[in-house]
Amino acid sequence: MGHSTDGVAPGPQPSPWTVEGLEALMERISTIQQQISHRAPTQQLFDAITTACAELIGPGCIVGLRLADEDAPGEVRLVAASGLPAEAMFGAISQPMEDGLAGMAFRDEAIVTREATHLTDATSFVNDVTAAALAAPVHAAGRVVGTIELGVLREDRHVDDRDRHLVRVFADLASLALNDHDAVESVRRVAADMMHRTTHDPLTDLPNRSMVLDRLTFALHRAQRTDQAVTVLFIDLDRFQTVNEVYGHGPGDDALVEVARRLREAVRPADTVGRLGGDEFVVVCEQVPERNTIDLAERLVEFIGEPIILDGLELTLTASIGIAHAAPAETAEEILWNADIAMYRAKETGRARVVVFDDEMRSRIMHRVDMEQALRHAIDRGELRLHFQPAWSLPSGTMLGCEALLRWQRPEHGLVPPAAFVPLAEETGLIVPIGAWVIGEACMQVATWRRDVPELSSMRVSVNLAMRQLTDPGLVDVVRDALASSGLPADALWLEITETTAMEDVATTAAALAELRGLGVRLALDDFGTGYSSLSYLRELPVDIVKIDRSFVINLATDPGSRAIVTAIVHLARALGLDVMAEGVETLEQLEVLRELDCHIIQGFLLGGPEAPEDVLRSLRSGAPAGTDA
Ligand code: C2E
Ligand code: CA
Ligand code: CA
């Protein structure tokens, strides 16, 4: 009886227990204990337990007892309940053992409380009727085999210490009932089995992510007391996907099992080796000096790199490893994340290597995370801007059009140039909505100029496209809508893709470009000459204009090589019936050479840099720039 009463003691905190309340509790406890010792049928015991608990807690509450289901491993069954409306009771008789509040009590082996928020996922047996709840574990033979849960039906009723004590007492009584029962052993086995399956990876039988995090959390607590080092090694196999692709999933799985075996063999028994999923493994080391963990990681890289023989097949894998040392107050998730970042860095810097996480990595990541978050809102908050850089006809000195160049007016950062955020936007896919905004905005601005400014009545606009936009199935609609809503004629819109982008996947690019061209827009190949793509590709891509890269223009007046390349590009483009444009023209000398070479369209600081829309008009009114003939 001592065992059951620890929960009842009011303890130092003020408690709403009354003498009558305590007497009522004692009476119920002893009645149920008598029933247990007289071997009453289990169901009767369970019913008595939930009924007594619900009565003592008071009206407006429901109490349920859930136990691991022998017939359905991984599930728990509601075996008794009191105070429940019948429909709620029949609604959720069984559920996965890890679900909801019960799942937490099960896993943490502790009493857990949940207040009003997120009710539905917390307490499935009482679903949306419950405003607050708590759950306490029920044990059999030292293992958690079930839970008693309390649901409160009124929103203003918070669970308090008295509720916690009561639920705990009745959970202890349920444990007592089970321990005394013949079925204890099998329930224990089922529970142990379930526990193992929810904490281990089925392929390698290594601890899974949640267990790794648990162990790491324990290690961190211990380290706090003993001041010892905890280190996480994040191990990722390099290009493992190709193993699956080339040899199939069978050998792929066998290779993973072998890697798991090698890892376990290489570390000390006290260290945890886990599999996070896919080809990601983790080692948690305790009490190993930092320097030695690097040696260990390097040994692991070597060990994994030894050939794996499977059924006459020989595979050689490599691994990239990130190391993170636990810093004070860091959580298990944070350390794992840090090690993951370091692993990523190991991949970036060439794979098959070890990288230790450091503060610089942290600040770079934080910077990226900040920027990504801010960028996500840049469109809605109206922070994106377009600047326009004119393009001139060299023979006639008229402004043919302009290129829309993206800027980000980021609060507290000023006007951010595209090089600082477009790559991140491409990586995260944000370039798709951002690019759609650019297309819409550029069309709108230029259509307005064409209507309102006589000198600009035939102005065209170029818009830069990223690869990610080109592979987006929505692009054609975006362009069509932008033309329709602005009223800009299709042939006044030029879309620029860089040569390198186009070369990434010529077939896809060609198909996407053909579809765009079907709308009547014109297409330009940007930064031409830098992609080593050779001129022959030009014939395969449906483009109208080639923009010679700035790097050739820079040396045009001084370097015969650049001059030769530009000459070749101009001739070839002409032969293919394409227009040629030179970008980055900064000096009169460059301009003269381009004139000699018969390059008809030019763009560059000499003739005007990118400007905000209101400044474009002002520059236009101040006349054509130096070097053109107008
Ligand atoms: P780009 O398409 O090659 O654009 C030309 C870049 O060269 C612009 O830089 C422009 O300001 C700069 N430039 C123009 N004339 C001269 C010159 O005479 N000398 C020098 N040194 N530079 C000159 P910006 O605006 O910083 O844009 C950089 C790149 O960012 C662009 O290169 C383009 O690849 C990308 N970008 C800009 N806007 C967008 C956009 O809306 N979408 C996408 N996907 N990329 C964009
Ligand atoms: Ca461009
Ligand atoms: Ca360019």
Describe the structure.
This protein is α/β, with parallel strands linked by helices and 630 residues long. The chain contains 24 helices and 22 strands. The strands form 4 sheets. It has an 8-stranded mixed beta barrel with strand order 14-15-17-18-19-20-21-22. The protein has a 6-stranded antiparallel β-sheet with strand order 3-2-1-6-5-4, sandwiched between helices. Helix 2 runs antiparallel to helix 3 and helix 3 runs antiparallel to helix 7 (161-179). Residues 526-527, 547, 583 line the site of one calcium ion (CA).
> Using only CA atoms, what is the Rg?
35 Å
> Structural class of the helix and strand makeup?
alpha/beta
| Individual helix count | 24
**Bound heterogens, unique:** ligand C2E, calcium ion
DSSP strand count: 22
Main sheet characteristics: 8 strands, mixed, barrel
Which regions have little confidence, pLDDT < 50, spanning 5+ residues? 1-15, 116-129, 182-188
| Amino-to-carboxy terminus distance | 104 Å
What percent strand?
15-25%
Strand order of the largest sheet: 14-15-17-18-19-20-21-22
Oligomer: single chain
Overall mean pLDDT: 85
User: How does the overall form come out from the CA principal axes?
Assistant: elongated
Instruction: Specify the helix fraction band.
Output: 40-55%
Compact description:
The chain has 630 residues and is an alpha/beta fold. The protein has 24 helices and 22 strands.
How would the blueprint of this fold be written?
Elements: H1 2-5, H2 19-37, H3 42-57, E1 61-68, E2 75-82, H4 86-91, E3 94-96, H5 100-108, E4 112-114, H6 119-122, E5 132-140, E6 143-152, H7 161-179, H8 184-199, H9 209-226, E7 230-237, H10 240-247, H11 249-266, E8 272-277, E9 280-286, H12 290-305, E10 308-310, E11 313-315, E12 319-325, H13 332-348, E13 354-356, H14 359-378, E14 384-393, E15 399-410, E16 414-416, H15 422-428, H16 431-452, E17 460-464, H17 467-470, H18 475-486, E18 493-498, H19 499-504, H20 506-518, E19 522-528, E20 545-548, H21 550-554, H22 560-575, E21 579-582, H23 588-596, E22 601-602, H24 613-621
Parallel strand pairs: 12-13, 15-17, 17-18, 18-19, 19-20, 20-21, 21-22
Antiparallel strand pairs: 1-2, 1-6, 2-3, 4-5, 5-6, 7-9, 7-12, 8-9, 10-11, 14-15, 14-22, 15-16
Helix pairs in contact: 2-3, 2-7, 3-7, 10-11, 11-12, 16-18
